[in-house]
Design a protein that fits this description.
With 426 residues, the protein is of the alpha/beta class. Helices cover 39% and strands 19% of the residues. A 6-stranded antiparallel sheet has the order 2-1-4-5-6-7, covered by helices on one side. A 5-stranded parallel sheet has the order 8-12-13-3-14, with helices on both faces.
Length: 426
Amino acid sequence: MFVSSLRLVNFRSYCDATASFGAGLNVVVGQNAAGKTNLLEGAWFALRGSSPRTRREEKLITWGERFTRVELELDSPAAGPQAVEVAYAPGQGKRARWNGVEVASQDDLRGRTQVFIFVPESLLLVKGSPARRRAHLDAFAAALDAQYAAASRELQTALRQRNAQLLAVRNGAPARTLDPWDAQFARAAAALGRRRRDLVAALTGRFAAAAAGLAPEGNRFSLQLVSQLAAFGYDEAALLEELRARRPGETGRGLSLFGPQRDDLKFLEVDAGEAATGLEGDEAADAGGSAVSAAAVVGPACGPVDLPRGGRDLRLFGSQGEQRAAVLALLLAEQQLATARTGEQGTLFLDDVMSELDDARRRLLVRQLMSAGQAIITTTDRHYFMEEELDQATVIELPLSGSLAAGAASPPADAAGAAPPREDAL
């Protein structure tokens, strides 16, 4: 399934603009402020019902307008043409339609397609907090698997309820009142923990292959799930016993300090001989330290040394280019896993990924994208691509007709008037 066309109405810098795309590699070329990122954001908004850049949806509306709407057409060899429409207006909320039929929920919308996006903020997947990495994994898996989505919701509900009861106990309620909440939380934690473990295991080999394919020096990389639950075998009874052992400390804090809500995902450069699945739990935490293996070479200050035991954490020690390549490798791995499970090869939206990659990595990335189904990639400089690569791609030049000029806050004076009522309606 691939995006064939996109119409943006009152979306960011677009008054009313349309773009068409091909099934393979698409290169969107434009100067800064020409609307490249907005174009990808609009497509994502239509397929996910949210922005990858902001939670304040009123920011998506062109300045001075009352609403925004995005219309997107998909083409699929199996299902045929599909039409998606998502609109938002302050005070009226957001509505989505699929082939003219209202979509019941945002989760329903997200479950209909597999799409993957890189925007500048995506680097925070490596550089940012564990919470961001957990949220990314859970959002990907929830769109792929309804049971994973249910397990994630159950964990969040159990966590809120248990935290509330911990506060109540701290304020004088009997400690035994935590018993039912401990049992509920242990059950939810074990269920989500096992699913998250299996997800990372399914991604790791694919990530390692994609990351190696982006490393011209032949480096090897791996994912590693670090989870407190691994030491207990993700067993519900063992988790319940641990929760009771930790009860005094957690009551004093009024907060659950043990569980999958404290998981983290590491991006590591590893030795060629290390297992692709990595380590988990306490063993992984030990490996993530700064200790150098016993085989490290002792020599000149700038001489070669082995990687730290357990691998080099790219969050702490990776260059900007390595971190960018790691995020791209994760998206490619997710696309491959989703394709294997759904039979549909989802679209990759890649915003300005070429600028901080060296030329060798650019060529390696384009080579992978050529076999990755549809990829829509933006750039300020078409010379990041070789002529033979552009010959095989669909090239879209910005600005599009119907977009604001760079730096403009509102439509030009001779632009068409307000949209007619049928165009305004959600």
